[in-house]
Amino acid sequence: MLRLRNSILSHLLSSSAASPVYPLHRHLSAGAPAVSPKPSFAVEEYLIDTCGLTREQALKASTKLSHIKSPSKPDAVRAFLAGLGFSSADVAAVVARDPKFLCAGVERTLDPVVVELNGLGISRSEVARLVSLAPDRFRSRCIVSKLQYYLPLFGSSERLLRALNHSSNLLSSSLEKVVKPNVAFLQECGLGACDIASLCSSARWILATKPEHVWAMAARAEAVGVPRGSGMFRQAMQAVAFLSEKQIAIKVEQLKTMLKWSDAEVGIAVCKAPMVLVRSNDALQRKSEFLISEVGLEPAYIAHRPALLSYSLEGRIRPRYYVLKLLKEKGLLHQDRDYYNTIMISEKLFMERFICPHKKAAPHLAEDYAAACRGEVPTRFRFT
Fold first, then answer.
1. What CA–CA distances, in Å, run from 352 to 161, 335, 366?
2. DSSP string covering 308-376, please?
3. Contact indicator for 195, 234 with CB cutoff of 8 Å
4. Angstrom distance (rounded) from CA 253 to CA 276
5. End-to-end Cα distance, the chain
6. What is the 8-class DSSP label of residue 169?
7. Is 65 helix (H, G, I), strand (E, B) or coil?
8. Helix or strand run (H / E) with residue 229
């Protein structure tokens, strides 16, 4: 790595523009030696000509680099980035995002960080992604201890990088004062490492926020009827993450109106499928009208099986109902089928049970079903 970077650095230095030559100044004393004043380092021009920033970006970045007197350290950093496989555009993006990265010590900080991260199982390509995601954090060696803590929590470097892509605050928050207390509290609520990592994908701020906010979030989840320790508590936390108590109360009333549910039925539905609280009203209204008015399901039946409301009306609920109705009219269903079970099974199993066995009796069923899944209504599915 050192030899490669030295080679890159030599190339970068040899391609740099030659320093301007200043004319010698005569002194009044004939015996005084001529002195050539040392040229100053033009930071803004360096950022434009060498790092590829725009004039506007360079003007903004240069205010943070006014103390730099020579290109030696920035050139070393550029060589470091090139060694990680950064293109000129990648380098420009890093410098524009964190101009002070050009001031980082390569041998004292950046190289040791790479070595230690490699030791944690983070590949060089993943290290490069880390630099791009959080250059301001990468130039501090404390990033190693934080990633060492996060890796077992998220289960893999790829999942961790995805989380950091959405919330780089994980690297700036205090482990001892913020992150670890939040993780401990969530574990007390019955969430495992996978649950916490999954929760972070939707409520990206949850580990990096003040613990009091996480406690309040858990209290709202309990208030909608999902107890701590239940299998649905993570989903309940996810559902109420961006809802206030007032917004939850409004949503409950809307569910009662749209789905003709009682208070008790709302409680049953939310406890079984907390994410119903964040489904769009328009989608819920259309599904409710179809399931109750056309399919003929009772509101109580839906309340006890709220997962029905999580599926696409156009892509799953309606097409499968049309298939069942056609088969029933043709006398090809020998017993009543529970509608919920036909919705819940996989596409492969649905085809095997309800489409393939009837190729001779209903030769157009497969193509009509496919058309219905695309949002069309085939003639044979227009029942009177």
1. 40, 17, 11
2. GGGS-IIIIIHHHHHHHHHHHHTT--SSPPPHHHHHHS-HHHHIIIIIGGGTTTSTTHHHHHHHHHTT-
3. yes
4. 13
5. 75
6. G
7. coil
8. none
Q: From first to last of the 384 residues of the chain, give the pLDDT tens digit.
A: 545 555 555 555 444 443 343 333 334 344 445 444 555 678 899 999 999 999 999 999 999 988 888 999 999 999 999 999 999 999 999 999 999 999 999 999 999 999 999 999 999 999 999 999 999 999 999 999 999 999 999 989 999 998 898 888 899 999 999 999 999 999 999 999 989 988 988 888 899 999 999 999 999 999 999 999 999 999 999 999 999 999 999 999 999 999 999 999 999 999 999 999 999 999 999 999 999 999 999 999 999 999 999 999 999 999 999 999 999 988 888 777 889 999 999 999 999 999 999 999 999 999 999 999 998 888 888 776
Q: What is the pTM of this model?
A: 0.75
Residue carrying the six token digits 């002070």: 100
